Structure formats: structure tokens, C-alpha cells
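It is worth pausing here to work through a concrete case rather than discussing structure prediction in the abstract. The textbook approach is simple: state the sequence, then state the predicted structure, then interpret. We follow exactly that order.
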Amino acid sequence: MVPGPAVTPAFSPLYQQIKALILQSLQSGEWKPSTAIPSEQELAGRYRVSQGTVRKAIDELAAENLVVRRQGKGTFVATHAERHTQYRFLRLVPEGGEQANEGPAERRIIDCKRTRATADVARALSLRAGDAVLQVRRVLSFAGTPTILEDLWLPGGPFKGLTAERLNSYNGAMYALFETEFGVRMVRAEEKIKAVLPDPEQRGLLQTGAQTPLLSVERTAFTYNDLPMELRRGLYLTDTHYYRNALN
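Step two, the predicted structure:
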């Protein structure tokens, strides 16, 4: 019998292996959001590698917004609670200004209930159809004008105890609430965007006409290790705002 081709094991550069170990510590909660991680020298000793290898691993984590370098202070676990990251996943920008300059959105929770995952929601969240999920509907307004209608689905287990009252009383960004009270940090997201027309219920909530085009944005947000933790479907009015994305 003729032997088949030799199988070469996948090679992972050393700094990538160190990056994976640091990610494990982030995921396990060893280092909490907004707190400092050990110095490069300490990590080099811990993992028995050079500081240069650790630095390269941290450089990638910083580029992915998982940690933040602060000159003269060290490297910190990134957090959604910081003002400059609150709008990281919100790409709707007012004409002639920045989102942060517009001030916080006025939020109104329409509904917050525990339900069973439909097939499409289960598929997006890597659940089984019928598993428990939390469904939230809310309207975000700017300067008193309803601008965004959002429907969210969250896996029931990690978000047990989340209520409409808690959402309404929390003053910060929703992802900061998930992070601080439920230990779930959203680290990246994927979006699908298309133009749609609103149905009657959507028109009423956004106070718009039947022929007003809306931007439909479906987002799946992930925590560490690419674990999906939120499905969000938003409808955006773009008469006074536009969707902005930077491509690298």
C-alpha cells in the first residue's frame, strides 16, 4: 500500500500561544474589566518567554480592543463602561457631529420577557430551538425624536435576573450593564445591513410614515472564544443620522 501524504501539525507562533493563554485569563475573570493586567515582565516570567513575545501578544489584544495600554500606567482590561468605548458598536452618527457629542440616547423599554428561542434565534445564539431566552424591545431617541427601534435576544442562563426595571434604572451603556452585573463582555460583533420599509407597529414606535426607508441592522455579538451572547435587530431612521464604519 502506498503511504499517504504526511500530515503536518498546525503551527502556532509562540506569541499566539501566549495570546491564547492571556485570553483564557480574561475569559475566566482572573483580570476584571478596567483593572490592570500583570506587567509584560511579570507575564514573561509566568509563561517563561521573552518580554518581546509577550509584547507582541498584547499588541494584538490591544488592536482587537480587548486591552488598553495607558502610557506610564500599564495595560488594562478594556471595558464598555468607559465613555470612549460606550459607542464602540453603535455606528449611527448625527449629521455634522459625533455620537459622543450628541449625548446619551433617551431609552424606553417597550418589553422585556423570558420566552423560548425560535429556530433562527437559536441558530444565531448557538442554542437549541425552545431554549430559554430573554427578549427585549426598546426605542432610543435623540433630542426627543425616536431614532432606533431594537429587538434583542439574550441566552436565558447568563442573563438570569435581568428585568425591564433594571434596564430602565441603569444609566450607562447596555453592554456595560452586561459586563458589570452579569460578567458577560461583548468583544466583537458581526452585522448584516439592508434597507427596509416599516410595518405598522414599527411605524407607530418610530413615529414615521409607511414609505420612510429604514436601515435594518442585524447584529450578533460575541464574548471570548467566539461565543455568541446577543442577537440584536435594529431599525434605524437615517434622515438626521448616517451609518459610519471604518474599514481597515
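Step three, interpretation. Helices lie at 14-28, 40-47, 51-63, 99-102, 119-124, 164-169, 174-182, 200-206. Strands lie at 67-70, 74-77, 92-94, 106-116, 132-142, 145-155, 188-196, 214-223, 227-236, 241-243.
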